[in-house]
Write the structure tokens for this entry.
Amino acid sequence: MSLQRSITGMLVKMPIHKSRITLTLAFVLGALSVAPGTQAAEPDCGQQLVDGTTPPPTSSYIYPRQPLQPFYQWENNYGYCGEVSMMQAGLNNGQWMSQFNARLICGTGLSQSGPNGACAAHRGQTDYNAQLLIEDPGTGVSGPNVYADAALCLSNSRLSATTYDYAAQTPGIAGYEQYMSWVKQEAIGGHQVTMAILINGGSDPQYDHEAAVIKIGTNHSPADPTYYPDDVVYFDDHGVYTLSGASFTSNPPIPPGAGSDSTGCTPYVFGYTFGSLANTRAGANRKGAQAYSVIIPGKQTIQTYTGGSGYDTVPIAGPHNYGFSVAGPADPTGVTLPVALTIAGPTVTKGATNPRDPVAGYDYENPMIGTSVWGKSCTNTPPDAWMTNFVLQVAVSGLTPGVSYNLYEYEFSAVSGQGSAAALAVPVEDFNANAGLATHVTAFTAVSSTFQQTVTATSGKIVVFRCVPASAP
């Protein structure tokens, strides 16, 4: 799901549902013009440069169990916002995979953009079903064809997750409030939540983009999941909006504003009150509307590309709200300890050190897939290099001093298979009994409540960590 800006001011004739939003120069200069007189360089880079808004302060905040680090997504092949949201949840639960592998893990058989040769056969248009989408198959909100549904993507990644139950949702504002209450309740539970949102300038009747929740601000009890219009949700938009000086710009492999780039700006973090987010498709696109909104659910006949041919729509009843929430690693017996990964950086691309982004740090992948900095590439070819000096800081928490533990590391060089056969060969129970599946094991006795180590790999590798007591099955 990407936001594509046209430097010619002409709309690109193509489906722009969920994954590709075309902003004409008229839109850039009108509905979301950059505030005059502002500077794009840090530390002034923020959402106010995009739509003139700033989130109001609140008395307290609700955070997921592990803090969320913004991550800069690839824009080609309809964008990787869903994949990046899943990757962020993975990092916070002890695992790394690239955006390329995060799409393959869904097991569609569509690779990155559709079967080989599909890009040429469809004039450079990506197969819509290749990208990670949040709708659940067989629930009346999609067509009959296979697509990268979030539930299977997350299961194959060996993450414990749920999707929002939109089938039980009430139409209208009441339904929107139900959805936001679910988002809040999942955050209170410490889970990593991904929301489906509208972009000003988009066209999908339900959602254009998938964004990861960073925190929720509230003036009420932080344990209360009730919907309050003055609650504020903060999310990472994965660097969709980028600026250079006072103008919107493209999405190159290195985020604008990183390193010594004093004029670039990638805000990442956007915050809006619950009461301000609810909108219709038309309302979300009106001149002067904020950058992001959330659809008000309904029961009209609408068109969706999800589960269609990959290039045409199918009718469904809607719109609906969608989301997914990751509670932790797949571990039904609850024996694993919390493990989080951090990209320590600086990473290296083809011998050159990548600069640090002031917000995302080293959480971006350079080079990107494809060649277009405007999100126009359609390709199954992986990036022409993977990052080296890719240092992952492993942090285990919740340990009991004096107790012995096993930290298992599982490494994979690629993803293969379709459907559930694409799942990672990582156990979900009996971790010690299945020690032979691990690539490495670190046995240690805790001397404090935490344990840390570093691992160096290339970014093309899949690396998964699970920590269990040595006495566990």
Remarks:
- The first helix runs from residue 25 to 29.
- Residues 2-41 have pLDDT under 50 and may be disordered.
